[in-house]
Amino acid sequence: MLVLGIESSCDETAAAVVRDGREILSSVIASQIELHKPFGGVVPELASREHLEKIEPVVDEALERANVSLKEIEAIAVTQGPGLIGSLLVGVCYGKALAFGLDIPCIGVNHIEGHVYSVAFENPPVEYPALALIVSGGHTNLFFIPEAGKYKVVSRTRDDAAGEAFDKVAKMLGLEYPGGPVVEKLAKEGNSQNIKFPIAKISDGRPDFSFSGLKTAVARYVRENEIQPLSKGETPNQAIKDLCAGFQATVVKSLVGTMEKLAVELKPKTLIVAGGVACNNALREAAQKAADKLNLPVYFPSKHLSTDNAAMIAAAGNFHLERGERADLRMTADVMMRLQNFENEDAALKKKKVRYRL
Ligand code: KG4
Ligand code: ZN
After folding, report:
1. What is residue 3's three-state secondary structure?
2. How far apart are CA 86 and CA 55, in angstroms?
3. How far is the C-alpha of 88 from the C-alpha of 71, rounded, in Å?
4. How many CB atoms lie within 10 A of CB 321?
């Protein structure tokens, strides 16, 4: 089945043509990084306007690069949520209208499930049960996946997402947006032993993540040690490099330590690490080391497929389309779309007044 994937949940307009959920014929990503850079983060209004401008040329280019015509596309998979409402609506409306015009099936895809499926291309097929660490700018979750299509959140962030912490620390230090790649680059030249930060402990004993305390600890360190944020074009000094290394080491240790602990408990057959932060080599190395220790395979997407893209949306959509699922014209953007679909603990967490974020 030839599926056209469309992604517009945040600040990337993307389209891809994927065959049978495993073969990428084309994957086009129009990044808005330059547009949002001056603001140090994504400006929702600007993002949706840019998606409107880019969606058509991006889809056209994906078809051209795949060397297929619209008539050959058999189904459309489009990100339905979670994400920014204005951004999501552009992709959802475009995808639905195109599918309606072509009289082919359309499916709304959960963006996070897309990240899970980003490992479908360059790795052996996933063996279930699987344990997936999805770390991006908006999400930090560990999902237990007993079989394809079934998801339970076994760890979540109580506050900031890991990628968001990278972005905020970078902003504090006067580094570029997005923070992840810059912080990683500087961390390579720093010594993580020079500045050590503690890993947040959750008082109710749940295996959850918390990164806002770490962000505050970095801010305090910056203030107490009179570290000046860089001005444009200035070369970072050793103190900033060590700070990046210490911060990154703490995030990696927290993510991989929790994944390892839950893997021992849940006994998955495959580990998955995906999402924008999975671009980070220190995270990849630590996850690989943990997997070797557990004698489990760990699958990563390539870097192109780690950050937001439409190939992963087409792959996840392919799975649902093969099961006969279809969206009708009433399908609309779902800003808070959840992936968890069994043993949902939301009610119990709410009762205990546990604050968390999906
Ligand atoms: O998956 P993604 O493209 O978008 C969301 O769905 O959020 O992830 C973007 C996030 C940003 O916060 C960015 O700083 C982070 O991924 N990121 C990284 C690296 N490359 C991107 N974080 C750490 N190290 C990297 N090399
Ligand atoms: Zn994403």
Report:
1. strand
2. 13
3. 25
4. 23
Tokens of 339: 């992936």
Under a CB-based contact definition with an 8 Å cutoff, are residues 45 and 88 in contact?
A: no
Preceding amide of 181 cis, omega within 30: no
Half-sphere exposure of 228 (CA within 13 A, CB side): 7
How many C-beta neighbours within 10 Å does residue 62 have?
Answer: 26
Q: Rounded to an integer, what distance in angstroms lies between the CA atom of residue 183 and that of residue 170?
A: 7
- The answer on pLDDT for 358 being more than 60 is no
Residue with the smallest CA separation from ligand 1 atom 7 is 137
Rounded mean pLDDT, 53-80: 97
Distance 13 CA to ligand 2 centre (A): 12
| Long-range interactions of 143-147: CB distance < 8 A, separation 24+ | 143/112, 143/116, 143/339, 143/340, 144/262, 144/266, 144/268, 145/116, 145/268
Longest Cα–Cα distance in the chain: 63
Which mutation among 133, 136, 303 tests ligand 1's pocket best, with the greatest number of atoms within 8 A of CB?
136
Question: What is the spatial distance between Cα 233 and Cα 242, in angstroms, rounded to a whole number?
Answer: 19
For the CA of 162, the closest atom of ligand 1 is 12
Chain segment 71-89, per-residue pLDDT in tens: 999 999 999 999 999 999 9
Kindly report the protein residue whose alpha carbon is nearest to atom 10 of ligand 1.
137
Q: Edge-to-edge, what's the strand order for the sheet holding 152-156?
A: 152-156, 140-145, 130-135, 270-274, 298-299
Amino acid at position 184, single letter? E
Considering the entire predicted model, what is its pTM? 0.94
- How remote is the CA of residue 307 from the centroid of ligand 1, in Å? 6
Within 6 Å (CB) of ligand 1, which residues are found?
10, 136-138, 163-164, 166-167, 178-181, 184, 275-277, 279-280, 307-308
In this prediction, residue 83 carries a pLDDT of 95
Provide the residue count of the chain. Answer: 358
